[in-house]
Amino acid sequence: MLFMVKITEFYLNKASYIAVDEFGNKIDVNIDYWQNKFGISVKNRELENFVKKLLKKKHKVNFAYKMLE
Fold it and tell me: How far apart are the two ends of the chain, measured CA to CA in Å?
């Protein structure tokens, strides 16, 4: 028998993104939200600053309240 249990905590863990610059170059972005770390395949200061802002906003943030019932 399957019981429905209310989820009380829901976190972002890891994410992978592709950023494209003005010249069409693709940059791989890997973010570990849980460990508060990131990796970028090509050095790009603007992208690094953006990712740091994402980490500051999302590091260990509980998103359970956003789940639909």
Answer: 20
